[in-house]
Write a structure and sequence with these properties.
The structure is a single chain. The chain is α+β, with helices and mostly antiparallel strands. It is built from eight helices and six strands; from the N terminus they run βββαααααβββααα. The strands form three sheets. The protein has a two-stranded parallel ribbon. The radius of gyration is 16 Å and the shape is globular.
Length: 171
């Protein structure tokens, strides 16, 4: 299949408000960055970062990222390494579930491999293996696209269609 850079709906920085566990987030990036912290007050402070009228999606996403990375004294969740990819999936899935127009945009990529845009790299503390978010983001989008294209087959079909998920999940 031809590889394409994912459309705007696949961008974690895209502003498309959605709710998870009764809390509203303005972007997937905001939700993800909020999740990192142990202290509920710190998580809430990150969740309340709002898009400025002059912000485009990229600028707002960078402000969310910077807000989380500037909280050096805040304690991170001990299990964050273990839950980060599944959390990104959960937030991205919630965004799609609450925005049918974005589902259509993602489904329009059917038949193509999705490549994530340039992003950060992290090294597993457990295995020492390097992971690229652009690879994980692409796999998350493909998994969700498969789930959306076969809604009656359940989550298992999405996992099976994305066999790469388990091959690269060695954290």
């Amino acid at each position: 299949a031809k590889a394409i850079i994912g459309p705007s709906c696949t961008d974690n920085f895209q502003s498309a408000p959605f709710e998870v566990d009764g809390l509203e987030y303005q972007s997937v990036e905001q939700a993800y960055q909020s999740l990192k912290f142990v202290d509920p007050a710190v998580r809430e402070k990150k969740r309340k970062v709002m898009k400025k009228p002059t912000d485009n999606d990229s600028a707002f996403g960078m402000r969310c990222w910077q807000a989380a990375h500037s909280a050096a004294a805040a304690k991170l969740r001990k299990d964050f390494e273990a839950v980060k990819v599944e959390s990104m999936y959960r937030f991205m899935r919630a965004k799609y579930d609450q925005h049918p127009e974005l589902q259509r945009e993602l489904l329009a990529t059917m038949g193509s491999d999705i490549e994530g845009g340039p992003s950060t790299i992290w090294t597993s503390k457990k295995t020492g293996k390097k992971h690229r978010w652009q690879d994980w983001n692409a796999l998350i989008q493909i998994r969700i696209r498969e789930e959306l294209s076969a809604p009656n087959s359940g989550l298992l079909a999405g996992f099976e269609a994305c066999a790469e998920w388990t091959k690269v999940a060695n954290f």
